[in-house]
């Protein structure tokens, strides 16, 4: 179970201000491309599951590729809980699957096997690509917490968010809210996952 605090920053100004304040604690920047898959008849979606292929790039060169299966998501009062299974795959294989979704079903993968065995995706019907979005993630080590500040670029707009994975989300939320208020950064509790925003086709 992945447990995260998710707070949405209201605009680019607040996003920039937060990054400036956190700059002494910056450890890395990640360029991510998120692409999603399902069966043609939406078997995963019907069971509240999401199959994501996330590639990481540096100077347009793909360095890592991670396949994720998420299920039974809940996002309440800025705290997200979701069952998550992750697996690294070869970046070239991932790129080929994005270009031709049918290849995903042929991939030697624990997660793909789960999609077939547990969720009932037919090998013959296979997978279809739903599209996706790009995300720029700045990571900070701050007061013993790992903060991830995201700029998610959808075809219909940009969304800004701060996330923190932790087993004590209510404490972390209090700390983050106090910090944001002290620094005059406007925020609200995230009400939708990035995937839900992508599928809705509009910003929340």
From TrEMBL:
Database matches in SMART domains: CYTH (SM01118)
Sequence ranges assigned to domain CYTH in this UniProt record: 1-202
| Database matches in Pfam families | CYTH (PF01928)
Q: Which SUPFAM superfamilies match?
A: CYTH-like phosphatases
The record's GO molecular-function terms, alphabetically, read:
pyrophosphatase activity
The record ties this protein, via PANTHER family, to:
OS08G0299200 PROTEIN, TRIPHOSPHATE TUNNEL METALLOENZYME 3
**Name of the protein described by the UniProt record:** CYTH domain-containing protein
- Could you tell me which species this protein originates from? Populus trichocarpa (Western balsam poplar)
């Amino acid at each position: 179970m992945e447990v995260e605090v998710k707070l949405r920053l209201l605009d680019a100004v607040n996003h920039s201000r937060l990054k400036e304040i956190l700059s002494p604690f910056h450890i890395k920047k990640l360029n991510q491309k998120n692409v999603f898959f399902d069966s043609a008849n939406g078997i995963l979606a019907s069971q509240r599951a999401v199959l994501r292929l996330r590639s990481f790039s540096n100077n347009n060169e793909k360095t890592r590729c991670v396949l994720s299966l998420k299920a039974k998501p809940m996002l309440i009062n800025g705290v997200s809980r979701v069952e998550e299974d992750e697996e690294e795959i070869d970046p070239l294989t991932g790129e080929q699957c994005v270009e031709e979704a049918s290849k995903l079903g042929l991939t030697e993968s624990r997660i793909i096997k789960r999609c077939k065995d547990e969720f009932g995706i037919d090998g013959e019907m296979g997978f279809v690509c739903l599209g996706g979005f790009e995300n720029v993630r700045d990571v900070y080590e701050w007061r013993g917490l790992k903060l991830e500040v995201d700029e998610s670029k959808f075809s219909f707009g940009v969304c800004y968010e701060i996330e923190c994975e932790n087993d004590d989300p209510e404490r972390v939320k209090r700390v983050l809210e106090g910090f944001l208020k002290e620094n005059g950064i406007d925020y609200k509790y995230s009400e939708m996952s990035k995937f839900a925003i992508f599928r809705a086709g509009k910003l929340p």
